[in-house]
Amino acid sequence: MSHGVKIKDLPASERPRERLAELGADALKTSELIAILLRTGLQGVSAIQIGEQLLQKFGTLTALERASLSQLQEIKGIGRDKAIALKSAFTLARRMAAELHGEEPLLDTPGVIADYLREKNRGYEVEHFQTVLLNVRRKLIRVEVISQGLVDTILVHPREVFKSAIAANASALVLVHNHPSGDPTPSEADIRVTRDLIRAGQLLKIEVLDHVILGRRAAANGKDYVSLRELGYFA
User: Fold this and answer.
1) What is the pLDDT of residue 232?
2) Which domains does the chain have, with CATH numbers?
3) How far apart are CA 171 and CA 153, in angstroms?
4) Terminal CA-to-CA distance of the chain, rounded, Å?
C-alpha cells in the first residue's frame, strides 16, 4: 500500500471490513484485523500501516498484549482511545478463552492445567505464583494468585499457599507459576519451594499434586510447560 492511501480510498476488495465480511476473519492478516479495531488512521497514514508499525515495534501479539497504554501511544496514530480499544480486545480474548473451559473443569493432568492457565499467564511480565485449588474429584474450586515476584524469582511462604486452600476446603492443589524468560526449566529455587510445600501439605492433609511451570514452546519437547512431577521431583 503506498504511503498516504486511506482505507476508504482502496477498492472494496482490499478494505479490511469488506474482506472480512466476504472471506471471513481468518483470511485477514493480523495488521488488517488490528486496522479494523483502530477504525481510522492518521493524516497520510492508514490504519493498516499503523497496525504494521505496532507489529514491527512489539514483534508478537503476546508482546503487544503486554504493552501498557503509554507504550501503545508511542506509535504515531495511536491515541488514548485506540490504545484502550486494543487493550479491550485482548482482555475479551482472554475472557473468551476462560469461558470456553466451562465451569468446574476437571484438572487432572499437567497438560490440562497448562491449557487452562496459559492465556492468563501469557501477559505476565514478572513471575506469578498461583495455586489451583481442587476438590476431592480433582475439579476446580478456584485459582488463587499467591504472590508476584521479579522477572526471574519469586517468594512463596507455605502459610499463604495453604491459607487459601484451607479456606476453600480444598482436598488437593497444583502449584503453578510462569517464567517470563520463556524457558520453563525449573530453577533450584523452584525445586526447593516445591519440596517444602509438599512436606507442608502432608502435614495438613492437603495433597500437592504437581508443580507446573509455564513458559514458551521449547523445541526439545514441543511443550511450553514442564511438570515437576513428570520430571521426578515428587518421588
Assistant:
1) 94
2) 7-98 (1.10.150), 102-227 (3.40.140.10)
3) 28
4) 60
